[in-house]
């Protein structure tokens, strides 16, 4: 046991440096005879142990952050998860997620693993995001981590966050024209509400088309329609699927007399969506 006297100011200093709890800081300094560097290492090791012990826990709460670069040419979405709604609503946790998103949009890593290798400012030093997450796990006492990461690029990228950080959308537009910010937000809200599967029918995966056709044919046959009519009726149902499920062909939620494509045309002739991403918490 340490014989070094640990003062309240020492505990507070370590707490300010690491963000760890008061009792954890006091224990760390006691165990390391008041050596600040050793105490910081002690707390980091504790964080790693906590992280390892919670690997089998469910972490379905958290926040979704959508962010664009300063030139609005790049956008990212990250989902940072935790175990409880209490932590998800904590301002420090949300700020940590925003810091990760800022680093992501600046560097455009290719994967979550590459994101974890990037560095972030934590207190007075620069550490890898993966290490910062382990340290944060030790401090919070819950399993946390990035479960989703998306990035898009375009002539104009607009980000939208819905429902208290529970859903994020990125929209890439073909032109950075006057009115693009507002139009992009309107389209992002459309995506949040209607959850399209693709920009238009050319972007729908062939396996989705095959599944929709087979379902349609089974329904038509069950209705007793002649076999000669099945293919034609199924094609009509597929067109209805495109109208309901592809972004540019959907009815615009703010004006049902127009499709999304037609709405964008009113903003600027030929304006269209080149990419989008939608991430919902826990989905």
UniProtKB/TrEMBL annotation:
Entry keywords, A to Z: Cytoplasm, Elongation factor, Protein biosynthesis
SUPFAM superfamilies: Elongation factor Ts (EF-Ts), dimerisation domain (SSF54713), UBA-like (SSF46934)
InterPro entries: EF-Ts_dimer_sf, Transl_elong_EFTs/EF1B, Transl_elong_EFTs/EF1B_dimer, Transl_elong_Ts_CS, UBA-like_sf
This protein's GO CC annotations: cytoplasm
Pfam families assigned: EF_TS
Locations listed in the record: Cytoplasm
Keyword Cytoplasm: yes
Chief subcellular location: cytoplasm
Region annotation (Involved in Mg(2+) ion dislocation from EF-Tu) ranges: 84-87
UniProt GO molecular function: translation elongation factor activity
Annotated family: Belongs to the EF-Ts family.
Name of the protein in question: Elongation factor Ts
Species for this entry: Mucilaginibacter glaciei
